[in-house]
Amino acid sequence: MSLHLQREIHSLKRHLLSLCALVEDQVQMAVRALLERDAEAAAAVEQRDAEIDHREVDVEEECLKTLALYQPVAGDLRLVVAALKINNDLERIGDMAVNIARKAAACAKEPAVEVPFDIGGMWEKTQAMLRDSVDAMVNVDAPLAHRVCLRDDEIDRMKHEFRVGIEALIRQHPDRTGALLRVMAATRNLERIADCATNIAEDVIYMIEGRISRHRRED
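Structure (tokenized):
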């Protein structure tokens, strides 16, 4: 690897880490807005979404410049391709944070509804998956990426349990249907964020091992 290409790859990793930290903060703020009925925090999430979009474009341009100028091959090429895909997934997570924030803003205008589910805990598990998937890329850690993929089933299970519970609450309190459906939609967005984290981990596996693990399950 040439010195210039090495510098570009380090820069790419640094920018992806920065973008990951920003989208983490966005989702954290959106979930807090939902749980605490904080309309101001929800509005702040929407206002900051443009920054994520701009950074996503910057990283994409950096990837394309690296491909054009240095024509990387083998593992270096896979890394740049993975960075392009990871960048896209991080931007999608930013969009899902906005979706959660919009649900939070709507809920804040209505009477409080008690939801006996650990939505904050679901986000903590999802956040850990996201953080570990990006760390796996930066540290070239295939075993960590594989472990992230295995943790997706737990988030799916939590989302299913929340959906069943919320449907039961709707039957008990039909007058609160709108608010409860918004909460359900927020948990669905968290599950999709976990899917994005899994996508990132699968891209890391491709980057390191040169094989596409998408649509497969480990034996």
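The CA atoms of residues 1 and 76 lie 8 Å apart. The first helix runs from residue 3 to 36.
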